Amino acid sequence: MAVSHRLFRLHSPAKNTLSSFLIRSFSSSSSSSSSSSHGPSLDPEIDLEEAAAQLEKSSSPSPSPSPSKGRNFHWVFLGCPGVGKGTYASRLSSLLGVPHIATGDLVRDELSSSGLLSSQLKELVNHGKLVPDEFIISLLSKRLEAAKEKGESGYILDGFPRTVTQAEILEGVTNIDLVINLKLREEALLAKCLGRRICSECGANYNVACIDIEGEDGSPRMYMPPLLPPPSCESKLISRDDDTEEVVKERLRIYNKMTQPVEEFYRKRGKLLEFELPGGIPQSWPRLLRALHLEDLYDKQSATA
């Protein structure tokens, strides 16, 4: 398959010097073996059993949910790094009126905070160690507890669960309605990750890669134009430290190894929706709405906007 992609050259400052991270959750057995290996380790505030109990408590319905805060959807987005989970989860969050909870954002927030736990996490990540299940679950529990206090109902999870252990814990404390598994050709995934840029001032996400993949054996051509920044952000673009070809390929390898069992976990329960992205947002968003039977709701909201 012939692949062509090019990166639009924009003036930008030096590469992002913030600590890069990769959420690689793992089972409790892996956690114990990791802690005994050389290098830094995270001293979690709670163990896995306590984290699961905390998650169950925070997942219970709000005693007085606000009708203006959306509906009681409990959805999960799966997909390789860079596939666009955050983009589509955020759009559906706005459409359905439920919070979009991305574990990557929760870890980023924790990394940017001050305190002993944050410094331990930074050291752990900088040495390529894995973030324990109990830590991820604890962060998620705190976010769900905050949502409950606001009267929010339902959620769309992005980046969790990533292991069968996490999926089993989540299944034990709440009823997931639907798991949307986004798929994209690996050539396009690699180009997208290498083209990702973030405005260091406003935090907006852009992509300077222009992806053009010729179809073979009857498959359609895939074209994904770049998502370029406005002039106000152009000189402030930075890239993630871990968005290099070597690191991206390793992330994809680890993701496939760890998450394929999660896909099977939900497939057996009849909750998995496989969705192959045909291209960029203009092509994919309408098809995703049709797959989810949300075209009418989207049209109605668009007409009243």
From TrEMBL:
Keyword annotations from UniProtKB, A to Z: Kinase, Nucleotide-binding, Transferase
Q: Which domain of life is it from?
A: Eukaryota
Pfam families in alphabetical order: ADK
* E.C. no: 2.7.4.3
Could you confirm whether the keyword Nucleotide-binding appears in this record?
yes
The UniProt entry's sequence similarity note says: Belongs to the adenylate kinase family.
Q: Which NCBIfam families match?
A: adk
Which named protein is this? adenylate kinase
Q: What is the lineage of its organism?
A: Eukaryota, Viridiplantae, Streptophyta, Embryophyta, Tracheophyta
